[in-house]
Amino acid sequence: xxRRLNDLEVxxxxxxxxxxxxxxxxxRQQQQIDLLQQQLRHLYRQLQETPATTDSRNPLDERxxxx
Length: 67
Description:
By secondary structure, the chain is an all-alpha fold.
C-alpha cells in the first residue's frame, strides 16, 4: 500500500510540473500574440495613413530589365 501511495505522489508531482510548464508556455505564447496584434494594428494604421497611389501604369506594359 505504501508503494502505491508513493507512486501516486510521484505521478502527482510530475503532473504538477507539467501543468506549470504548460502554463508558462501559454503565457509566453500570449505575449507573442499580443506583440503581433500590436504590430498588425500599427501596420494597419500606416496603411490607412498612406495615400493610395493612382498610378495607372500597367507593369505588363513596361519593358523587361534585359532589354
